[in-house]
Automatic annotation (TrEMBL):
Membrane topology field: Multi-pass membrane protein
Source organism: Amnibacterium setariae
Gene Ontology annotations for the cellular component aspect, listed alphabetically: plasma membrane
Gene Ontology MF terms in the entry: transmembrane transporter activity
Localization per record: Cell membrane
Residues passing through the membrane, by range: 42-68, 74-97, 109-128, 134-156, 168-193, 205-226, 247-271, 283-303, 310-330, 336-360, 372-397, 403-424
Family matches, as InterPro entries: MFS, MFS_dom, MFS_trans_sf, MFS_Transporters
Stated name of the protein: MFS transporter
Amino acid sequence: MIDHADRCEQGRSLDTIAPGAHPRPVTATTLPAPSRRLPHGAAFWTTAAVFLAAMAFTTIPTPLYALYQQRDGFPTWVVTVVFAAYAAGVALSLYLVGHVSDWVGRKPPALFALGLEVVASVLFLLLPTVPVLLVARFLTGLGVGALTAAATAHLGELWRGAGGPRRPGVPAVVATIANIGGLGLGPLVGGLLAEYAPAPLVTPYVVALVVLVLAAVAVLVAPETVERSSRAWRPQRLTVPAEGRGVFSAAGAGVFAAFAIFGLFTSLAPSFLAGEFQQPSRLVAGVVPFAVFAVAALGQVFFTPVAVRVQLVVATVAMVVGLAGLAAGALVTAEWLFVAGGLVAGLGVGLLFRASLGIATGLVPAPQRGEVLAAMFLIAYVGLTVPVLLVGAALAFLPAVPVLVVFSAAIAVLAAVAGPRMAAKAAR
């Protein structure tokens, strides 16, 4: 069994991470805030709201893809290509600029990211053709990679600046809720507006544009927490541990499987609901991904005190059972079973992702953990992209139900192999 110190070290590494979060430890200075800036305590919550809003924008199109399909008549596999453009943008941005807030400050990358999202929202509004959708989604991904790095670190520093060391775990919980919760909130907002507001392919982006502009104002009035320094730029380094590569491979398989599920529910699940279950409601198309992400976020928060080994057991069982329910719901055309399977799998996704990152970072000394995390995040975004693209390619030739069943079986096997391997490591 791992001793208490090891468990606490794993807990600390886990508590600083959320999907897309900054993959390297940082050293920052809490600078005195000018009088025109918000106090650190207030800025902590406004920064959390900015993070939530920016992440929500990235998934607002989720329930709208079926409407684009109806309007333009393109096949489902095109949705996967549009989604892949977003994931490619995130991965590229994490690798190239995800770490620059360490020396340029937290606010410039956040403002740059929000600017990219504003441009993307204007493109969605003015030129919503497939080629422009690809560009808009790629820009959105670039913004996410830059913003999550800066925002996650900024929250921790603002909390310390506000005198919050007595509750040091608060920033990690808030960052998790803002990050995964924002990803879940986007489909809900998009679905609500598409269902009940006029111009369903316009109104969501108008609302998003207003919110993003307000978010930029909130960033401007927040205090900076990093003293700007001159430093030569280089891409984020990647490290694969020389020892424990088998466990690292299991952890990589874990994050790959987790993000494959996220990819399914933010790209194809709404189209599947509309096609196979004849579900016309855009609200339902938004509520289902929202619920999956909400369960993933809440699972991470509530299982924080639980031993990593137990988290991995729960995650593996939830992933396998949930994916089985997902496939069974598709086979017997039972919408409730499809949704229930997604929710159970969502719990497993959140726990498996969190535990996989903790296991991977525990394989190397502290100075190398940022580089290991960078490698893990790139694996995660490959998991977000490649399986969805393969599903999209298969849908060009095969019916949707068998494709979904094979996808569910493959990811369940991956989770069933990776989870026990990491649990054995955590038990030592």
